[in-house]
Amino acid sequence: GAGKSTYWATVIAYYAQHFNEPSLVFFHDPKDMATPYRDLGTTHPYQPVDANDKFYEDLGVPVEDVVDEKGQLIARIEFYCDTDPTEPTGASKFDRRLLGFYEEAKSWASVGIDSMTFYQHNSLMRAKKELGFRLFEPGKDGRQPYGLVAEQLGILLFSRAVHWPTNVGVMCHIDDNKESFGELGVLQTAALQGKMAKRAPSGFGEVYHLIVTPQKGKDSTEYTRQLQTVSDERWIGKHTVTKAPNPCEPTYEALWKNWVK
Hints:
Layout: H1 4-19, E1 23-27, H2 35-38, E2 42-45, H3 55-59, E3 63-67, E4 73-79, H4 90-97, H5 101-105, E5 110-114, H6 116-131, H7 144-160, E6 167-171, E7 174-180, E8 186-190, H8 196-199, E9 206-207, E10 209-214, E11 223-228, E12 238-239, H9 252-255
């Protein structure tokens, strides 16, 4: 992959190593894609604190804890993957999880949502189920499920995630379509439903594009990865808080290089 999760794992590692503060990942992708987070330490299934600790059991969400050699929590990964498209539950479980989450967010060094592609897919499966949607059904507007996904996406990003009082990361794939960003021009941006592809960057002070460049050589299988942190003629980018170099290495510490005196 491009390295989105690998980059976010450097954020998690930084706060664990320097402040002993754990992070939370809301994971929507297939489980194998969580490897960059698992590689931060030793991974085991979540162990309830006591007999009354049935939060995750009641929610029906698999959870893994990543710990260091001393047993200190580095990251908690909550999996909202849908395995049965005829009975989608991932999006609804995630909605329930976020009820009242604002206060809990303070207890995590960072909160990551990985990725928006599968979150939107889960939301779409739920919308089609709720609407009783069938492809090309007479009298049905085929845009309705996608409209619901866009609405839920707006609630997640603009009414919830942007306000959580911690470091928030939203991992997105890139869309081939382009959006107009006024004086910045017509740029490629994140693969988000409806107008959110254009609107979502306005809610976040930091927006990065991961650049993956094959190394020279006919038989080379190696790639160089860098973060684009400001907009150019093709891609949207922002570094309002970090004032990060552009481009820079895809690590959390590299973003703050211009703050080091």
